[in-house]
## 1
Amino acid sequence: MGFTTYNDIINALSSGKGQSFFWFKTCVTSPAAASIMMRLWNMAGWPPPGADPTPALSGIVPTSATAGAIPYTNPTGPATMHLLNVGGCCSLQAVIFLYDRLWHAGGINLNSASLQTITDAQAPTRHTDGLGNMLLVEISAAAGTTTKDLTINYTNTADAAKSVTVNIPASAIINRVLLVGLAAGDKGVKSVQSVQLSGAMGGTGVANLVMYNISELQQIPCYANLYADRDLVVQVPNLPKLNDGACLATMFLSSASGANQFLFGRVMMAEN
Amino acid sequence: MALATYQDLVTALQSGYQQPFLLSKAPPAASGLFASLWSIAGLPAQGANPTPALQGAACDLTTVGAVPLANATAPKRLFVFLVCAGGGGASYAGEIFLYDRLWHVGGINLNITSTQTFTGVTAPSRHTDGIGNQLLLEITTAPGSTGQTLSVAYTDQNDAAQTATIVVPGSAVANRLDFLALGGDGLGVKSVQSATLGGGMGGSGVANQVMVNVKDLFPVIPYTWNVYTEREMIVQSALLPVVPADACLALMYRGASSSSPLLQGRIVLLEG
C-alpha cells in the first residue's frame, strides 16, 4: 500500500492516521570543533535517553520500543507509515539528522589491538538485504591519545566478506560520531562480524558500532536558533516509508564547539 | 469523518475561522530559551497564574488565556490550517509554538525546602493515560540568585511513582519555560503530586508547573524580526495539526536574542 494521491494524505491526516512528536535534547558534550558530528541517542530530553548496547560486543536490533527511540505506533497492516514532515532547531548552526537505528553493538575496546568478534545478532531485522545500510562509530568513552584505524569486517549485499577502515582520532571525545564508508564497489552492509584496531590507543576508550540506512537519513539544515522543517511530500518529495518498528533517533553536525547545545524538532508521520 | 480531498478542505475552509494574536511586549528570553506567553497581555486574553497556590487545575478551551476556540461538531475534528506570525524588535528571531495546556498548578515557592504538596486536581482531563505528557516549569516571579534543583513527585503512565528534576537557574527571568527531566522511562506523566526544592534560592521566586503532550506541541512559525511569515499546514508543511477537543490552545516562543519582541499573527482553523 501507499498514498496514491495527495487527497489520500489529507484524508489520512484528518482521520486520525497521523502521528506527531515534538522532541528535545540537550547535548552535554561540546563538539570540540566545527564539523564534528555528535550523537543525541543518549542525551537527556525527550525521547528519554537511550543506553549503550550491552553486553559488550553483542549485537542488538533496537526498535521503536527501545528506550531512546521516538515511540510511535506501527500502522495497521497492510497500511504503511510514511514521514511527512521533519523539522529541527539547534542553538548553533547545524544539520540535524533523523535516522532509523537498525542495529548496534557496544563495548568496543579502543585500547586493544585484538580482534573483537561481534556475537549474537550480527544483522538488522529491517533492511535485511543490506542495500543502503551503512555504519557509524559512536564514541561512548573518550579515546586515548594515540590515533589508530579501526577495521570493520562485514558481509555485503552480495554475501561477500568485506572490510573497511575508519580512523579513530586521538582523544576522540565522548559522544562523537564517525561516519564509515564501504569497501570499493559495495552497496551496503548485511551484517557485521568483527572489528580490530591497528593498535592500542591508550586510555579507556570505548565505542559503539551502529547501522543505519542511508536512504532513510533525513537531513534538516538549520541556522542557529531558527527552526527549519522539510515537507517530505511537496518540498522535498520522497515520502519516506518507515519500516515497522523503526528506531527513530537523532544526531547532528555542529558548526562550532560549545557544550549544552539545545536541540528540538518535530516528526510528523501518517499511515495510509 | 475525514477530509477526503483537497476540495473538501477548501470547502471546510470557507466555514472555518481565524483567531488573531497580538502580544505587544513578549517577555525577554535569553537566547535559545523558551518563554511563556500565557500571562502576557494582549490577544488571546492574558491568562492567570493558577490559584490558589499549589492547587492544580485542568485547563480547557474555556480557561482564560486560551486561544478562543469552538469544538468541532462531532464527529468532525478541528484542525490548524494556517498560522501567520511576525515579530518586531531589533535583531530578533525565533519560533512561535502552539501547544495544548493540559494542566497547571501555581504558587510553587522557590525559596523554601519543605515539600509543597499539590491539592485539588492533580491530573489532566485530556491525555489521561499520561503517554507523551511532559512537565514544564514556568517562572512567574524571578527567584533569587542561587540555583537549586527542584524535584517533582509524579505518577507515570504505568502508575508508578517517579521523580522529575530540573535545575532552576539563579535569577531565572519571569516567564521562562524549561522542560523537566522525567524519571523512570521518561515516557509520560499521569498526575503530579508535589514539588521539593533542594535549597532556598533567596528572593521571592514563584513558579507554575505546566503539563503538555509532545503530540500536541507544534513549533509552527520560525520568523525573523520585522518579517511576517505564513505557514500553510497542508501543502506547504504536510502537517494539518489536530486540535484536541476542549484543548486549551496556548502560545509560547523561543527567541534567538534577549529582546522583548512584538509578536502578532493569526491562526486559521477549520473543521473536517
## 2
Amino acid sequence: MPLIEFTDKGLYCPQGQFYIDPWKPVNRAVITHAHSDHARWGSKHYLCHHLTKPILQLRLGDNQYETVAWNEPVTMNGVKISLHPAGHIIGSSQIRVEYGGEVWVVSGDYKTEDDGISGAFEPVRCHTFITESTFGLPIYKWKPQQEIFNDIQHWIIQNNAAGKTSVLIAYSLGKAQRILKPLSETGLPVFLHGAVFNVHEALLHAGIDLPAVQRVQPTTLKAETQGNIVIAPSGADGSPWIKKFAPYSVGLCSGWMQVRGNTRRRNADAGFALSDHADWDGLLQAVKATGAEKVFATHGFQAAFSRYLNEQGIEAAEIKTEYGNDEEENITETEKQDTP
Amino acid sequence: MKQFAALVYTIGTSTKTNEKLQALQDYFAAAPEKDMVWVIAVFSGRRPKRIVNSTFLKDLCIEICNIPYWLFEECYHTVGDLGETIALLLPEPGTLAAGLQDVNTTEKTLSYYLEHFISILKEPDEIRKTFILNSWQQMDRNEKFVFNKLITGGFRIGVSQTIMVKALAKTKQVSPSVIAHRISGNWDPATTTADDLLSESSSTIDHSKPYPFYLSYAVEGEPADLGDINEWTAEWKWDGIRGQIIKRNNELFVWSRGEELVTEKFPEYHAFAPALPDGLVLDGEIICLDTSAGDGIIKPLPFAVLQTRIGRKNISKKQLTGAPVGFIAYDILEYEGKDLREEPFINRRTLLEQVIATVNNPMLLISPTVQATDWQTLHTSRAGSREKGSEGLMLKRNNSPYLSGRKKGDWWKWKIDALTIDAVMIYAQKGHGRRSNLYTDYTFAVKDGDKLVPFAKAYSGLTDKEFAQVDAFVKRNSIEKFGPVRTVKPELVFEIAFEGIAASNRHKSGVALRFPRISRWRSDKTVDEINTLDDLKEILRMYNAGI
C-alpha cells in the first residue's frame, strides 16, 4: 500500500486516514495553503499552519481547525506529519508524511525565491516528492523580484506623472501583500478593493505586519485615488467598478505575463511577470534538493515536466488533480458590488 | 537597437491607438535617419532577406540551451511565436557558453544589424552563426525578441500601415496621402535615404509606385439609410485579388493589394499592355475568367482556380488556357500621368469606360454597374449575386474621391449572406499571438454515415469568453495528442459560415471552402444533429449552379 494514494477526492494517506488538500468534503484534511483550489469547503476537521487559519476562517467560516508551526510534528494513526515552509504565500507549507521509515512530501504550491513575507522555501529530503508544475517549461525563468518591483515602481511613477491611477491586478491572497511594500515605497497612497482588503484585515489581526492602506469605499472620491495606486483582484478587471478610476492604467502581476500574448489577450496596459510559483529552474532545483527517488507532478505543465525529469534519470509521472483552476480568481457577488 | 526594442515593447503592450501613434512619433523624432528608413521598411513588410531559416535559428537555440528538441516544441506551442520562444529560452546576456570571442559591446543601431544581415547573406553557415550568437550575447530579452523577429519573419506586432503613415505625416509635416504613396511600391531601404523617401521635394521618381488602395467597410444596417440612391453607383463585388495595373514610361507593373509586385505572373496583361495609354493606373480585380463564349459577359471562375495560378513562378500552357486571368477594372487613378484621385468617382468612371473601350481586349473588362432606381430593386439584384459569380454589391458615392486605406462613408460593401453548415469540432491546436497557450484553432467535421469527415479549419468568430470556454473543454476532453494537435471528444457543435465552395481532390471531404469561420456556437445542438457530407455536396452542387 503506497503511503499516499491518488483518489477522486484528492491525495489520501490510507494509513493516517487523512487527505491533503482534498477537493471534496472529507473527515480529515491537511491543508497546504489557503488558496481556494487547495483549501475547500465542507471537511470536518482541518489541520494547517497557524498563519493559514485566519484566511480559512475568512473564506470557509468556522470549522474545527488545528494549527501547527513549521517543523512541529503531529501524529495521526501512527503517521508522522509535519509542515515546512513552501514560500508561496503567507502560511503556505509543504506537508511531510512519514511512516515506517518512508517519507513523502507534498509540495502544495511553492516558490524558491524568498519574498520576505511567506517564509523561505525549505528543501525537505524524501523518498517520494509530489510537486506542482504550474510553470514547468524552460520559457518560465523569473527575473529577481527586486528588478520586477523596480519596473512596477517606474510604471507607477510614469502613470502618476500622466495623472493616471495605477490599478494593479493581483491575487488578493499572496500577491497583493507581496507587492505592498514596494508600492508603499513610492510614497503614494495605496487603495484596496474590498476582496483584497478583507484578506489584509484578517492578516493584520493575525499579527502580520503590513504597510498602511485604505479601502476603496462607495464614498471614496476620485480626487483621493487619482494618480495613486489601487490593488484589485482579476475579477474586477474590466468591471464597472474599475472604470470609475478613469483615467487609469492596468498592470497585471502574474507569472503568465512572461509571454506577450497573455498580456495582450488580457488587454492590460502592462504585464509584470511576478509569480508566487517556482520557475523552471526553481522546480528542478527543488526536485533535486529533495533527493527523491520518485516524483509525481501535479497541475501545470506536468506532462512536459515529468517527461524531462525521466530523461534526466529521475523517475517521474504525472497525476491529475483539481488544483490550478484558481488562476482567474473568482470574486463573490457581494465583492463585485463593492463600488467606489 | 534598444530604442527600437523599446518602441516594439510599447506598441505591443499599449491598448490604445493614440498611445501607439504617440510612441511612433516619439521614436521617429529621436531615431537616427537610417534607422527610421528601416523601421518604415520593416513595418510595411519590406524585411531584408532571411539570413537563416527558422530551423537554423531553432537548432542554434536548442544547442545553446541544451534542451531536448521536444521540449523546445512544447515551449513553442505554448508561446505561439518562434522569435519570442527563443528570446525566452536563451540565457541572460553575458552568460552564454564559454568559447565565444569577447566582442565589442557598444550599442549597435537597428540599421547596423539589418545591413549586417545583408552583408553576410552569402557567407558560410559558421559566419552567420557566430554573428547571431554574438548578437544574442549582448542583448536583453526584449532586444533578442526583436532581433529574432527581424530574422524569422512577418513583423506583425499591432502597427497598421495607417498608424505609421499618420505618425510620419505628423513628424515630417507632410500630408498622410503623400506619405502613403511615397512608401508604397518598390524601394530598397539599404539604398534609400529618409530624404528620398519623405521630403516634400524628393526628386527620386519610381515609376512602379502604386497608389494606396481604398478599401471599404461592410454596410451597417439598411443601405436605404445611405440616402438618395441617385447619389450612388452600385457594382458587383468580385472575388479575386484586388490589384493595380500601372503603365508608365511604356513599362507595365502589376501590384496586388498586399503591395507585392506580381507583373510577371500574368502574361495575359502583357498582351494588352501595348494598347494601354502611357501614364495610366487602373484599380481592379485580378480574377480568372471563363471567356469561352466570347460574348464579353463576365463569367468569373471560382477563387480556387486563381489559387492554382498565384504562388507559381512558371506558368504552364495548360494553366494559361485552363485558368486564364483577366482584370475587371473598377477605377482609374492616373491618366496621362495625372493623379485623378481627387476627381469625383462618377467622372473617373466615365473616363474609365472610354479607356477600356479603346483597349478592347477580352481580358480587360470594366466592372458593370447595377442599375436601380430604388433600394428595393437593388435588394432583388443583390439576391442574384451568386448567379453572376459575384459575392454581393459595392456601393460607391458618385462624388467621392479615391481615399487611401479603409475609410467609412463613401464606399460600402454589401455582401450576400454567407453559406452555413453545422459541424462538430474534432481537433484543436493552440493559437498564436494574443491567443498563446489557448486552444483556439479548430478543425470541424460533418457526418458521413457513422464516420466524421473533417472539412474545414477555422480560427475566428468566437468571443474571448467563448474561446476560454472551448479551451477549457479541450483541456478536459482531449483523447489523443499528435504533436501540437489534440483530438477532442466530438461534442461541441458550431455553425460554420463560408463565402464559397469548390470541389477539391486535395481534401478528404472532396470540397474546399472559401473563408470558413465560426458564425456561432450551437450549444443547443448535439453531434447527432450536425450536417452530413451529402449536405455539403448538395451545397457545392447548388453553388456551382448559381442557385
## 3
Amino acid sequence: MEHLVYPTKGLSEQAFEKSEVLFETWHVKAEYAWDTGVAMGKYLDELKNGRLIGRRCFKCKRVMIPPRMFCEQCFRPTDEWVYVQDTGTVKTFSLCYVRWDMVRLKEPEIPAVIDIDGASKGMGILHKLGEVDPQAVKIGMRVQAVWKPPAERTGSITDIAYFKPI
Amino acid sequence: MGLRRVAVVGAGMTKFVRRSLETGRELAWEAVSKALESCEMTLDQIDCVVIGSAPDAFDGVHMKGEWLSTGAGAWGKPCMRGFVGGGTGVFSPAQGWYHIASGLFDTCLVVCEERMSPTQPHPQAAFNTIFDNFTERALGPNLLWIFALEMNAYMTRYGLSKADVAQVAVKNKRNAADHPASQLGDANITLQDILDSEVLAWPVQRLDVSPVTDGAVAIVMAADSVARRVTPKPVWIEGIGWNLDTAYWTNRDLSYPTYVEEAARMAYRMAGITEPRKQIHIAEPYDPFDYKELHHLEGLLLFDKGKAPEATALGITQRNGDLPVCPSGGLLGVGNPIAAAALMKIAELFWQLRGEAGKRQVPGDPRRGVAQAWGDLMQVGTVVVMGK
C-alpha cells in the first residue's frame, strides 16, 4: 500500500522562524459572560457561604454533586437540595508538571477527583490538593476543603483554595 | 433489518507529519485522490461525502466541514460532517455505512482531516474550553489532567506499574516503523526510553503520549452490487456501534470505559459475534496514550478487566501474536491527527484483511477485525467491525 500514501511535505519546527514559508497569523479575542443557571447558581452561592450542596433524586435516591435540576439517569426533575460534607476521598490524582501551554512548573500542581462525603458513592468533583508532599499523595486518601476567608469568596469553585489531607 | 450490505473498496492517506506544508483542504485532496486511485474510481462515481474533523479550534476555521468540502470532493454532492471529538474517525464510516445501507446512496466517500499544528503555542490551548465553565475552568486545568487522572485510576485499581503500561508504547512505535506514513515509527525504541522520558503529568510521561500531527485519510464505501464490480476483494462493514457516557465525568468509574463496552456490544450484536476473543483476529483500538489501548481492549471485551497488560507482556498483542493489536503502529507510532488517526485504523483493517499491509501484514489470513475510537468529553465509544 506504499503507493497509496501521498508524499505530503513536512515542515521543520523552524520553518516559520527561518521564513522558509509564508504564513498568516490570527489572534482570537472572544469574551463570554454566562449566567450561572439554576443548579449552578445555588451551588456557587453556597460555596460563598462555605458549604457544599448537592441535589437528591427521589426515584434513584442518588445525591448528586455537582448538583443538577434534572436526573440524567431517571430523566425527571431532581427533588431536593442536600448539604453534603466538605470532606471526601481522593478517587484519583495527578502530579502535573506542565501548564496548558506546556511551560514546565517547578512544583507540581496536584489535580484530583474527590468523592464527596454525603453524596452518593462515586460522586466526585475536580479540585486540587495542597499542604501535602506530592510523593505522599495516595488514592483513597481522606481530604478536607480549605476555604478562603469569607471576605475573599466570590461564588466560585476557587472559594475552596484546595483540599488538604486529614 | 432489510438493509443492504456495505463494503470498503478503497483507501488512501497522506503522510502523517508534525506540520504539513499543505493546508487542510490540500491534505483532504491528497487523501481523496489516493483513495480513488486505489479502487480506480472517479469522483463522478461518488454519490455522497462524509467529512470527519475534530474541533474547529485546531484550524481556527469555524464550520470547518464546509471549509474542507472542496478538497474533500463534496462540491455539488450531498455532504455531511459528523462530530464526536476523538471518536469521529470511526464514527464517520458508520455514517457512510447508513447512507448506503439505507438504500439512499450506492457509494460514499469518507474523508477525515486534521491539522493540529496551527494552534499556538500548543494545541492543548484548543482543549481548555472542554472543561466545565463553572466548576472546572477556574482551576486552570489542562488536557493532560484528564488522562493522568484516568491512567492513575486504572493503574491503581489493578496494581499496575509504569512498565506494564509503557510496553504498549514500545510495541506501537516499533510497529509504526513499518508504516510508510508514520511520524514516530522507531524499530529500536526500548522500554527504558519510555520510562526515562520527561514527566508531564504523573503518571503520564512524554513517550506515553501520541504526538501532535497533521494528516488526512479517505476511504471509498460502496453497496454490495457496486462493490463486487469495483474489486474482487471488498471488505465488509459487519457491525457498527457507538455510545455516550454521562457528561459529569467526575461522577464516573474512571478505571473502566463502560461506554466502549456498550458500543462494542452493539457492533458485535449486528455482526453476529458471540465470542469476540475467538471471532476477532485483529484489533485497532484507540491509543492516544499507551494506557488507553489497554483500557479499550478491556472495554471491547477482548480481555478481562485489568488483564490486557498481562496479555501484552506475553506477546499476545504483537503482530505475530494470537490477537495482533495496532499492527499499524497506532496513534502512538503513526501519529495522531485526531479524526484522521482513527480513520487510519479503518484503512489498516482494510489493507490487513486484503493481505496488502506489506511489512505490517499480520500472518494467518485474518478474516475479521475491530477498530475503535474514543472522544467527546472522554465519554464516547465508537466501534466498527470489518470482515472479508
